# Entry
Amino acid sequence: MCGIVGLYLKNHELQPELGALFAPMLIAMGERGPDSAGFAIYGDEAPEGSIKITLRQSGREAAWSEIADALGEKFGDPVTLSVNASYATLKVKSDETALRAYLDEQHPELRVMSIGRSIEILKEVGSPASIVDRFGVRELAGTHIIGHTRMATESAVTTDGSHPFSTGMDLCLVHNGSLSNHNRLRRRLQAAGIEFRTENDSEVAAGYLTWRLREGDTLKQALEAALRELDGFFTFAIGTADGFAVLRDPIACKPAVMAETDDYVAIASEYRSLADLPGIEHANLWEPEPAIVYTWGREAA
Amino acid sequence: MSRTQVYDLANGDVRALNQQLHELGDADFETPWRVLHPKGAHAIACGISVPVHVVIEGHAGYYCAGMNQRAHVEIDGNCGVGVAENLMSGSVRVRGHASQSAGASGHGGLLVIEGNASARCGISMKGIDIVVRGSVGHMSGFMAQLGNLVVCGDAGEALGDSLYEARIFVRGQVKDLGADCIEKEMRDSHREQLALLLKEAEIDADPGAFRRYGSARRLYRFDIDHVDQY
# Structure
């Protein structure tokens, strides 16, 4: 059992309140996932030609300002830095390949949690309520956000095994369910050059999407391919630069409920997470149908 | 003079509510109950054994009104997975939509869903009657043993898969039938029975517009000639 929540704001005036609206949604899924929690928040876009990268220190305290200064020197433009608990988000005038190569060489102790122009992934071990406090979620602003609360079944409770998983530029995946063919699929993806950090089945689903997108699929095509190739139970929410997508497996054992008003589109594993959203009593509420790819956002995929 | 007992879940918990409902004696079950601010909480109004009338004002969560005998529970909203699960007798009415496995393994009583029900409605039902004004999702009536499943809208994939002796009536389209489920002749006796059920459910629909589905009875007794279907 795990919990999924997501909120996409149609009304731009609500953007400063994104975190405040989202925090109770995540906490309400604490019973479905008390082990770890995380979220991917979108907004505060990096300018054209720059990318936004979210890094996590492992072990000792990272000297973020020095790292930012060095990155500015290397890529020839001042770097914007914002630190949140053990995470830092930097906007760097670079491309993904060059930036990753530099970080691999200079800072192998740092983990790249997300990369794109808009996305920031933050996740930790602990109860959803403690994660909300640790990252000051209620104060965060943005355009949309998806989150996850984990009750671990298949692999260890670690930050690396927590959701969301980055699946490419501005993309991430959260998963409720379990996959049964993940070991074989992981080996196949490793042979295709996809790297994995855990024994986690959801990381394989994320790796699978990364691979399909790298091979040129659109997000919709990649998700339709996932329906054929992933054996198991899943409700997926996929964060994109513009919004989010939802997919349930054909058996649809894992729950999902959607709500839409003039102000927002929201998804949650259970209605409990939606119950405090403004105007929910008049929202259009429905369950996404099995095996259908749903997308919301500025441009549907 | 009839009073109403109001229980506000904004200031109380479900366990205490259910405890109060369980403790109702012969004298006080005539007082109707209103439950406010359910906000998707699980297991509201479960395990009641007296004919008390309970109205839940809002959306309920999982397993609402499960395991009840004789009680009449009304949900003025949607409800989550497994509403009226293992219902023994009495009734449950959902004014909105119901999630998966509505009426699962119900032994008796009546479940009315005024909106749609999603997947596996009436799974393993054992005598309950279920009337859905809207449509039902895939695998509805899966392994249903006894009782009636009435669907005024459409039915999703694999209707009545591995069906035993429950009867299924559908007015709209059936996407496809599950293993061992077949369409059967709608006789006068079925139309009469269906008319009574629709009346009891207070759903206005013409019994003559429904088709009947039931078990071909090839699957639940082992037969070597049908081994490929198991």
About this structure: Helices of chain B lie at 14-22, 188-200.
